[in-house]
Amino acid sequence: MPDTAMPILDVNGLKTVFRTRGGDVHAVNSVDFHLCPGELLGVVGESGSGKSVTMMSLLRLLPSPPAEMRDGTVMFDGQDLLTVSPEELRLVRGSKIGFIFQDPMTSLNPVYTIGFQLTEPLRAHLGMSKTQARARAVELLELVGIPDAQRRLKDYPHQFSGGMRQRVMIAIAIACNPQVLIADEPTTALDVTIQAQIIELMKELRRKLGMAIIWITHDLGVIAGIADRVMVMYAGEVVEEGPVREIFRDPRHPYTQALLKTVPAVRGARAEKLQVIEGQPPIMWEAPAACSFRNRCQFAFDRCGRENPALTPVTAEGHRAACFLLENTSTKEPEAVDG
Amino acid sequence: MAEAAGPLVKVRDLKMYFPIHAGLLRSHVGDIKAVDGISFDIAQGETLGLVGESGCGKSTVGRSILRLYDVTGGTVEINGFEIAHVDRDSLRLKRPMMQMIFQDPQASLNPRMTVANIIGEPLDEHMKLTADARLARIYELMDWVGLNRAFAKRYPHEFSGGQRQRIGIARALALNPKFIVCDEPIAALDVSIQAQVVNLLEELQERLDLTYLFISHDLSMVRHIADRVAVMYLGRIVEIAERETLFAEPLHPYTQALLSAVPEPDPESERHRKPIVLQGDVPSPANPPQGCNFSTRCPKVMDVCRQIEPGVFDFGDGRQVACHLYSDGMTTTAEPTAGKIKNQ
Q1: B196 to chain A: closest CA residue
Q2: Is residue A299 included in any domain, yes or no?
Q3: Which of B176, B38, B180 is nearest to B102 (CA)?
Q4: A25, A87, B135, B192: which has the highest count of C-beta atoms within 10 A?
Q5: What does the DSSP 8-state code read for residue A93?
Q6: Is A81 inside a domain boundary?
Q7: Does a structural domain hold residue A269?
Q8: Separation of alpha carbons A50 and A242, rounded Å
């Protein structure tokens, strides 16, 4: 491993399958990744790429059936989260690993006050008394920038605006000082000016609390500004990962390259025609035996249909990509895309 | 073409208020001023981008222009016909020339109708075609939007999001419209599919000489597709300008904040970008602030902003800004200017 620090979270060969009436859907296929203390890992992919399912699988949050974790290990704090007992898992969920969901409206309970929902984890996980928990709840709301915190504890979720609700969600997620925070599209449901507020808040919290963050998004712009490392997912597999600068400056997987070009710029030069990735992502009825991107890839050749490329190192900085083009860069140079 | 070179769409002082009823007798206690006096023109063949955050009234503008709502005030003229205040029968005759593409292709297609019937429904309503001619037209439309003819008998749930949006586009094109309101047509789609749909809309515009009002909150996509851009905040247009002028040098403090808030997929420039982070939330349109609507969040707010609503200042070249910062040496204008007629 190139990183000097020991990873706080180490995922190996994770496989998640959904058993449906139409057959098994292979949502997560042998995903490996690690997260170092204090690091921000961005996870990018389109809907159905398995980015959320991967993170939900870590904490066994998916209902089973239909979900089934077929394989893999998730090492956290010296134990494998996939095999620990439900009681031990409860200690991890919410207190050592916090989770922020995309839609703050549906992930807060509408019939309980914010105060109740905020003090619940404090009392359950940290064993605080009612008064202690309330004092800490006020502190947390102030930390996430909600004015008049004392009074707002009595309010219900619907009395908050979208941005304020997401702040409440963040307050709940960080309530027990987690070592890892998983944020699943935390700004997708928000307007850009509110998104900017939330991103600033998350940056500030990270500075103050020093937790490691996994930030799932489909917005490449958001990732560019906050992540240390980026992992790109396609059809349930990691196709590329590496330091944020390398991924954006020198993407090596054709999917990453194409994805970066489909997004028009707000600043700088404007392209006359948008680059398109033809077709659509596959539904994974079978575990991938070949490259899942081959049908949409402009560089695909015979071998892509026969074997599934493994992640191969590109640079010493931990930049890896899963593409056969990288093996014989002399004959097929991926630079050809820049034309 | 019969009409002269004037703008195809002329909107003047459009107002759309939704009444609030309260109490036992449901008495009228106030109004949600979703659209509060906006004016703009769209030239033939032009795309006007309408941007703003949720709740600013941009979708209501699109719907009011097509008279999907009965507007509270103002006039709308499309292709020389007054739309806002005509009776239902004459309105119905004008419907074919103005169409709409909706945000959510899942919700805007009837799940019990086949693709052929969805696309053919406007033909049934407005034209008397023989069965053969009808089917020929449906196939032609499917070809235009890149749908395989073999799928004509399938139902919407059998298609992906991008394909469903193509069905919606084909339906909108069925009656040879001149003007199409695209209400967040790509918001529900994945990044790689968005580009496909936007390119399709551009191709169709060129081929059929269409005029678009492109409503979106995605500023980078609007910069790509629109010729001119209008920025809305709380029911009013705060700035309208040519695309490049607006993105290169936004003048209204809200436009500045909005543009600066958009993150860009470039880690180097992102490290140095200092977004203008607006404080607080958008006020309720039921109870807008006194003076300028943006005064409660504006980083450059002055005393006058909290008392007097700013006029619209004209900078020439079709650029207009509603802000007190520019009141010195400027003259207010009532007449909005359209973009140049495109000759392509």
Answers
A1: A276
A2: yes
A3: B180
A4: B192
A5: B
A6: yes
A7: yes
A8: 18
Q: How many domains does chain A have?
A: 1
> Which residue from B195, B257, B266 is facing A276, i.e. has the nearest CB?
B195
pLDDT at A329: 56
Residue A21 contacts B where some CB pair is shorter than 8 Å: no
Q: For residue A339, is it within any domain?
A: no
Chain A window 44-63: which residues touch B at a Cβ cutoff of 8 Å? 46-47
Q: How far is A191 from chain B (nearest CA, A)?
A: 6
Residue pair A258/A246 in contact (Cβ under 8 Å)? The answer is no
Domain carrying residue A70: 9-96+176-326
The runs of H, that is alpha helices, within A76-153 are: 86-92, 104-107, 114-126, 130-143, 149-152
pLDDT at residue A339, as a whole number = 36
CB contact under 8 Å between B191 and A262, yes or no, is: yes
pLDDT at residue B5 in the model: 63
Contact: B258, A193; criterion CB under 8 Å: yes
**pLDDT at residue number B323:** 93
Residue A101 has pLDDT above 90, yes or no: no
What distance lies between CA A4 and its chain's CA centroid? Answer: 23
Q: How far is A143 from chain B (nearest CA, A)?
A: 16
List the beta bridge partners of residue B232.
B237
Across B154-202, the runs of DSSP E, i.e. the strands, are 179-183
pTM of the model: 0.85
C-alpha triplet B325, B75, B56: angle, nearest 5°: 50
A276 touches chain B (CB under 8 A): yes
Residue A87 gets the label, from left (phi > 0), alpha (psi -120 to 50) or beta, of: alpha
The nearest CA of chain A is from the CA of B193 a distance in Å of 7
Q: How far apart are CA A166 and CA A49, in angstroms?
A: 24
State the CATH number of the domain containing residue A76.
3.40.50.300
In DSSP terms, B48 is beta-bridged to B213, B228
The reported pLDDT for the residue numbered B60 is: 93
What tokens were used for A315? Answer: 């640079």
For residue B145, which amino acid is it?
Answer: V
> Which residue in the set B53, B247, B277 is minimally distant from A266, CB to CB?
B247
Task: State whether residue A339 is helix, strand or coil.
Answer: coil
List, in sequence order, every residue forming a beta bridge with A67; answer none if it has no partner.
Answer: A18
pLDDT attached to residue B343: 36
> What secondary structure letter does DSSP report for A289?
S
Residue in A211, A33, A182 with CA at minimum distance from that of residue A98: A182
